[in-house]
Write a structure and sequence with these properties.
alpha/beta; Rossmann fold
Length: 448
Amino acid sequence: MSKSRLQYVCQACGYASPKWLGRCPACEAWNSLVEEMGGEVGSQRPAPPAVPVAMTEVVSTSQPRMATGSAELDRVLGGGLVPGSLVLIGGDPGIGKTTLLTQACRNLAEAGHLVLYVSGEESAAQVKLRADRLGVATPNLLLLAEANLEAILGACKLEHPQVVVVDSIQTVVKPGLSSAPGSVGQVRECTADLMRLAKDQTICVLIVGHVTKEGQLAGPRVLEHIVDTVLYFEGDRHHAYRIIRATKNRFGSTNEIGVFEMRETGLRDVLNPSAAFLSERAAEAPGSAVVCAMEGTRPLLVEVQALVTPTVFGMPRRTVAGVDYNRTVVLLAVLEKRAGMALASHDVYVSVAGGVNVNEPAVDLGVAAAVASSLRGRPVDPTAVAIGEIGLGGELRMVPQLEKRALEAARLGFRRCIAPAPAAELQVAGIELVPVSQVASALQHLIP
């Protein structure tokens, strides 16, 4: 006779133990094991033998992607939604995940695709309020306020939609499991069933996932392995701009980002993010420098701000937002040693305007220029952009795709680009490339 077995499952990684443990031995998380009923022992039936097929006999069918109506979202997806794919989108609460997907559903429905929107968190009336605000008025968009997985799968078989959105996967319940909604077992099994739905019926399924306080997707790590694409929707809720990026994409690049602006009427694509991030820049203020970062194939000009003030404590303070903290501390040490700046007696605050995060080494020179400008009280040349990695010896190192960065700076009206010495071999129309080899010489060009 089959019987259910009791087990304790870690809600962080999915590790199962026959007894309760205070600390998970797999992920070392404390107090994360929750009591769950496992599958029935002895109830498994042998599966029929599978017949392999030669690779040369497999018939490949290419189906056109479905455009979401958002150029920024399509860029990150690799050109649009792929039929039969499973897409997971995560982000902090209130960042705009539901708004983004509602707008995408509206555009897909208006293009003639049948879309099913499943809400497990809100009632149909609450979803309708948001839809009215976003201007949704199409019969091709179906709404289902349901958390039961069997009911959701039954609606999909009945209506045959081309796109299904599940908001969110942590609220969906599979009746055959005794664990609570949002538990590791429920999230894993519900996602697996939705994946089979997408593959069997060639439906594009998008699921919304919650995130933990550490910023990671809630649920088992296997969740990110099951899906085809993982998107993160991020940004500062106190700023208008939002960024979506892919950390996994089986049908496209993971180096692209999409930029949106949150407005009362929803999210708007920012097709020229460089101009948007520099629109409020005070060019004559000390402590401000413009750098060019690469996000995939897109050059992005942003403003780096620094504030250097005498410290009133024995230990100077270092506060950083938008760039890597450890790298900034190294840059301050290089400036003190190689450029003769007395920063040990000063507090240093560094921030990237607009709530953007840029962590590549190419912004080193811009950070150094902003710090030196604030310390000296003189502004950086407003017509110059700083590009280059700084080594521990104070040397300026080459960065990839320098020509594309310089072209973006020239398009926005900058006349000079302070760059590493190998830039002397490049010719870029509309902008003067000033090659330098040391950070001290670069600061002389940037801060007249």
